[in-house]
Each structure stands twice: as C-alpha cells, then as structure tokens.
Design goal:
With 291 residues, this protein is an alpha+beta fold. The chain has five helices and ten strands; from the N terminus they run βββββαβββαββααα. α3 crosses α5. The chain is rod-shaped.
Length: 291
C-alpha cells in the first residue's frame, strides 16, 4: 500500500466559538486528485466514510501530514455525504478544548477558510478502470489541516487536493469536443492533464456508448411498433375480407330470395287466373241449369 494525502477546500458551514466546532467542513470531493495522477470517485469517498466510522471518538485532525501526537488539534465526526455536481463528504471539525494554540487555529480557520484545507491521510492503491486510475483507500490515518497556496493558484485547494470545479469532467469533455483545452488545463501538471484528458475521453466514450444504446433501443422499439402495426393491419385486412365474403353471401342469398319471391308471385297470379276461370265456368253452369 502507498501513503496518500488528498486535500479539499475547508468550506465550513458555520463556527461555534463556545464549542470550537466548525460544522459542515468539506473533507473530500469527487473529481481529479491534483498532483497524484488519479481520480477520486464515489467508491473512494464511500471507502473514506467506511474507514472513518472505525474511529470511536471521531477521526483525529493534525496540524500537518505525517506528524506526531503533539500535532493533533481536533477531531472530525458527523461525517455525511452531500450530493451535488460532484459527490462530497462533509463533517464537523471540533478543536480540542485544551489546545494550546486554539485561538490561533480558530483565527486561521475563520480567516483563511478559502485558502487552507483538510487533507485525507491514508494508505491505499490505484485501481485501473477503463484506462483511468482511481484511488482505493485501505486505511485512513487522519484528516489533516494543510496549507500550500503556491500549488493552489485559485486559493481553493492545496497540493494533492481534489478538483471541486462543478462538473469538472463535463467541462473537460465539452472542451475536448470543442478543441478548446488550454483554458481548462491551465494550472494542471502534465500528469494531471493526462489524467483529466483520459477521464474526459472515457466520459465521451461512455456518453457515446450510452447514446448509441439509447438509439438502438429506440430503433428496436420502432421496429417492434412497426411489426405490431403490420400484424394489426393484416388482421384487419383479414376481418375485412371475411366481412366482404359475408356481404357477398348475403347478397347471393338475397338474390335467391328475390327469385323465389318472383316465382311465388307468378304462381299466385296463375292461381288467381285459374280461380277466375273456374268462377266463370261455374257461373256459366249455373245459368245453363236455371234455363
């Protein structure tokens, strides 16, 4: 395992002077880990949160990395995930009650909250995912206060800190597509630039794959709809053919009935004529008899 330290802008939500608690400080954020050539993802942050839970009274905070017990200035507890453009891990930083330089650290943290930060001190390894290295945390040692403005031109992060620029990968992906990379890569080392570009490329490939799969799904759905429509049309045509046959049969039956009616009319008229003839003959017989 390799020792790593990753920093993030402090970003305290509020400070309680009586308790010495800085609530909601930023600990680590999803994105590019400057100075290390790897990325921090949701798995990394989940591992930090898991290992932090092993500290019974909170994770110790030192005044700098890889120092001794004399440099412990406080503890962080109440860790919680915060969803946003990038996943962030926050917690409450409480300075030790009997800290010798407590007033000094309170002033530093309140005055320079945008220039100092907290840094994860851990042992871990890299995991290659689709050609991109991600940090995997095996042991969390402490979360330390750090200051490195020379490596932080924007006054937001210290060396080895996580890039908290909103949707950094989306910006890099857009820049990569547009061919306008200079502004997005300014201030990054060669290794960080390669990491960022790899991540942007992977993001583009993932988006292209997702778009292709979505289009293929829409195409398959359209084919299925067309097939269903053709089946329905065929069934309707079959029903129409059946109905037309019935109409034809009924028309033929009607024609037959018309013929039968005509024959019956002829028979009726013939019977009337025969009846008339018989009546005439009867009358003639009666006349002859009377004479």
């Amino acid at each position: 395992m390799t020792p790593y330290s990753l920093s993030a802008r402090l970003e305290p939500g509020s400070f309680n002077a009586e308790t010495g608690v800085f609530s909601g400080v930023s600990i680590i954020t999803e994105g590019v880990a400057k100075g290390h050539g790897f990325l921090v993802d949701r798995t990394t942050i989940a591992q930090v949160l898991e290992h932090a839970g092993k500290f019974k009274n909170g994770v110790k905070v030192k005044a700098d990395h890889w120092t001794g017990v004399a440099q412990i200035i406080g503890v962080i507890s109440g860790l919680a995930l915060e969803e946003g453009n990038s996943l962030k891990l926050r917690g409450d930083l409480r300075l030790l009650k009997n800290l010798r330089d407590r007033a000094f650290f309170e002033e530093v943290l309140t005055t320079f909250s945008d220039a100092v930060g907290l840094s994860i001190s851990c042992y871990g390894s890299r995991e290659d995912v689709d050609g991109i290295d991600y940090l995997r945390v095996h042991e969390l040692r402490s979360i330390d206060l750090v200051d490195d403005p020379a490596a932080n031109p924007n006054g937001l992060l210290s060396r080895g800190s996580v890039d908290t620029s909103p949707e950094a990968m989306k910006i890099l992906t857009a820049a990569l597509t547009a061919g306008d990379l200079d502004s997005q890569l300014t201030g990054l080392s060669a290794a960080d630039s390669v990491t960022a570009l790899k991540a942007a490329y992977v993001a583009m490939c993932s988006k292209a794959k997702a778009d292709r799969e979505s289009l293929e799904a829409e195409r398959d759905q359209a084919k299925q709809s067309l097939s269903t429509a053709q089946t329905d049309l065929s069934q309707e045509k079959e029903k129409l053919g059946t109905s037309e046959k019935k109409v034809g049969d009924l028309t033929a039956q009607l024609g037959t009935k018309d013929g039968e009616i005509s024959t019956l009319k002829t028979e009726r008229d013939s019977a009337k004529n025969e009846l008339s003839t018989a009546t005439t003959k009867r009358d003639e017989y009666r006349t002859q008899i009377e004479q």
